[in-house]
Hints:
53 residues, 2 helices
Amino acid sequence: MEGNPTFDMLSSFAASWGMAYFAVIFLAVMVYALWPSKRDLFEHAAHIPLSED
Length: 53
């Protein structure tokens, strides 16, 4: 069964590419959150708990 991945192969793949995948996702979320056009949206969301309605 040469074509089946082993645990060692999968764990080494997850260790190397998993970190890169999560780094890319983290950077994408940070860019989205800090994008200048999103400021008003996040300012409004930050004041929702303080509103009296």
